[in-house]
Amino acid sequence: MSAKTQHNNILFAILGFAIVVIVVALIGYFALDRDPELIQGQVEVTEYRVSSKVPGRILELRVKEGDFVKAGDTLAILDAPEVRAKMTQAQGAESAAAAIELKAQNGARQEQIQGAYQLWQQAKAGLEISQKSYDRIQRLFDEGVISAQKRDEVYAQYKAMEAQERAAKSQYDLAVNGARREDKLAAQAQVSRARGAVQEVNSYISETVQIAQMDGEVSSVYPKVGELVGTGSPIMTISIMDDMWGTFNVREDQLNGLAVGSTFTAFVPAFNKDVQMKVYYMKDQGSFAVWKATKSNGEYDLKTFEVKARPVEKFDGLRPGMSLIIKQ
């Protein structure tokens, strides 16, 4: 066999082997199932934190982690002696303002009113006598019995007694009517201010007893009994178990038609079950959340979207933190 024939045989063998490898690869590519691309998310739940407007010491914790509470249940009791002291001060100021208002409304004491009345009656009696004396003197003057000087002196006494009677009447009216209208209004304003202070302290006192605002499950309790907590410091966290959703970070080339209002199937590994979910929120994660850069190939960056969806139907046993898988 010539060298040329041997060379050709080797080339044919290599070509045949290459063809077999390509065929086998194509068969494997099309015949074997490819692993689906997975998008993993997790279950989230709405939470609210229980905290107090006033600092205090934890006197009692009525619940523990894992307890289910209803709106209005007592969760914790704080001891705040400073607030109680402020209440004593506020109540004292309210009592003082109320006494001042009562004094302004009632006016003078009954003894003062009676004294002013007697002085007025005395002045009235003096005025009556003075008027009678003047009338007699005037008749005598008309008859020419007395001089004009005498008549003028008696008239002056009569006018003086008339002015004295009016002054006594004014003093009596003042005693009866009491303080001026402006003084009464000022006293009422002082009472309103003092009552507002009491209401403010009452609101602080109510903060020493923390109650549940909504039904939920106690997910975390932070302080221990006897510890101090500051203003606004969280005491515990309540999870609203009726408000759960799933959150996913999805690259935009994996959205595959996901849009607000659309539904999809998610797999729950904890129960080995599928759950139907409906998208209610989508938002891009911004330029900082680029998962796959392709600019080196002259194309574009693929951004990530945060997708939130709620179960279409209630799924018993679903807990925050459980994984959710979308298979593509």
Features:
rod-shaped, 328 residues
Structural description of this entry:
- This protein is an alpha+beta fold and 328 residues long.
- 44% of the residues lie in helices and 29% in strands.
- The chain is built from five helices and 13 strands.
- The strands form two sheets. Strands 1, 3, 6, 8, 9, 10, 11, 12 and 13 form a nine-stranded antiparallel sheet that branches. Strands 5-4-2-7 form a four-stranded antiparallel sheet, with no helix packed on it.
- A hairpin with a 7-residue loop joins strand 11 (290-293) and strand 12.
- The model has no long low-confidence stretch (mean pLDDT 81).
Structural class from helices and strands?
alpha+beta
Helix content: 40-55%
Q: What is the total tally of β strands?
A: 13
pLDDT < 50 stretches: none
Q: Give the mean pLDDT.
A: 81
Helices, by number, come to: 5
Quote the beta fraction: 25-35%
Describe the biggest sheet? 9 strands, antiparallel
| Ends distance | 58 Å
User: Which radius of gyration do the C-alpha atoms yield?
Assistant: 48 Å
Offer a concise description of the structure.
The chain has 328 residues and is an alpha+beta fold. It has helices at residues 3-31, 81-106, 110-143, 148-177, 181-206; strands spanning 38-51, 56-61, 68-69, 74-79, 209-211, 216-221, 228-229, 234-251, 263-268, 273-284, 290-293, 301-311, 323-327.
